[in-house]
Amino acid sequence: MYTYLDPTLTKALMYLEINLISIALVALIHYKTSGLTKMVSQRNFAMAIDAQLVFFTSDTLFAMMFYDVFPKIPLLMFLFKEAYFMSTSLLCFYWFVYFELMQDSPFVKNRTRVRISSALVCVMALILIINLFTGICFHVDEDGVYGRGPLFIVLYLISYPYVFFTCIRAFVRLFKKQYYAQRRMLIKLALFPVLPAIAGVIQFFIPELPVACAALSISTLIIYIDWTDEMISVDPLTHLSNRKTIDYYYEQWQDNKEENASLYLLMVDANKFKSINDTYGHLEGDKALVRIAEAMRLALRGHNRRFNIARYGGDEFVVLIWGESEVAIENLKARIDRTLRRLNKEANSPYDLTVSIGYEKAAPDMSLKDLIELADEHLYAEKAKLR
């Protein structure tokens, strides 16, 4: 004898199972990333995860009451829906800030701009407060029946621009050569909203189909995998690439040589770095390394070809750069020196922080080891001139 479940109960159980899996997945990501880093970008990543957990939980509890799995309490149903839309706005905002930080956008380096950009979150809070008294966006009647109001669509229009704006920026940068080093990361950021957006449209028209939470958790997992990969390949002090990425980019050049694009490897080394550590301490030495890294980033910002900056070890850095001529490389060296002098002045540095730079042009069949050794020879020839 077969027992058939009520179709409504079947839908409810499916909704519950999918959402619980989504909650468990995102909670695990939250646990695995908690306390790993104090970087601003990762704090925003964590806050986006927190908002996501509220989003999933409120959606699940509302659905269980809606389907009569839990007793219907209209006030709680209404508050769960309010929490659902507020958390939607917050998670979109935190993803926006995180994505902008990942793209090294000047926008998020200005705190005033970030505060201004949070205005849509404040607007969402205001609308939800007004909705408490008017039901202009949605309502739950005394029998626990949920209904949409005339301004329901506004709740989506307020939240989603955050994510779409930053993802469009990532998509545009995919076609700019100076962002080639970030290409893999930009692809992930550009594609992040695609799956949740499709799922959101489906659930907008078919509310009983629980695809929004599942799609968002899958997209979050992809970003988390990228995040852990970045933790492995990024130097934690300077936030430059680390030594292992040099092999990857060199192989990329060997496999995909651009016509009329030579590859140069620059070895960059801090002058008299030991005396800075000995005189001012290792904390000041760390600040000096961060300043050198920032000088190289700024000097290369206008370069219209591909490049990768990596910390090679200690006070040594490597730059792989696609360039047209030695003249361009010499100009880059001068630009790094000028930028570093300016940063020293802005930091009121008590010591004269300078770098020596040696470089070598890669030959088609040259190994990376040989290329580094040749650039290193030129580097120490530069240091010998200083002595």
Blueprint of the fold:
Layout: H1 7-33, H2 40-66, H3 74-102, H4 111-117, H5 119-134, E1 138-140, E2 146-148, H6 154-159, H7 161-173, H8 183-191, H9 194-205, H10 212-233, H11 243-255, E3 262-270, H12 273-280, H13 282-300, E4 307-313, E5 316-323, H14 326-346, E6 355-361, H15 368-386
Helix pairs in contact: 1-2, 1-10, 2-3, 3-5, 3-7, 7-8, 9-10, 12-13, 13-14
Characterise this structure.
By secondary structure, this protein is an alpha+beta fold. It has two domains: 7-233, Rhodopsin 7-helix transmembrane proteins (Rhopdopsin 7-helix transmembrane proteins, Up-down Bundle), CATH 1.20.1070; 243-386, Reverse transcriptase/Diguanylate cyclase domain (Alpha-Beta Plaits, 2-Layer Sandwich). It has 15 helices and six strands. The radius of gyration is 26 Å and the shape is elongated.
- Which radius of gyration do the C-alpha atoms yield? 26 Å
CATH 2nd-level architecture of the largest domain? Up-down Bundle
Largest sheet: 4 strands, antiparallel
> Superfamily at the CATH H level of the largest domain?
Rhodopsin 7-helix transmembrane proteins
Quick one: CATH class of the largest domain?
Mainly Alpha
Sketch the topology as an H/E string, one letter per element.
Answer: HHHHHEEHHHHHHEHHEEHEH
Mean pLDDT over the full residue set: 84
End-to-end separation: 94 Å
Total strand segments: 6
In order across it, which strands form the biggest sheet? 4-5-3-6
* Structural shape: elongated
* Helix fraction by DSSP (H/I, runs of at least 4): 55-70%
State the CATH topology of the largest domain: Rhopdopsin 7-helix transmembrane proteins
The number of helical segments is 15
Secondary-structure class: alpha+beta
Regions with little confidence, pLDDT below 50 for 5+ residues: none
Q: Tell me the fraction of residues in β-strands, as a range.
A: 5-15%
Count of domains:
2
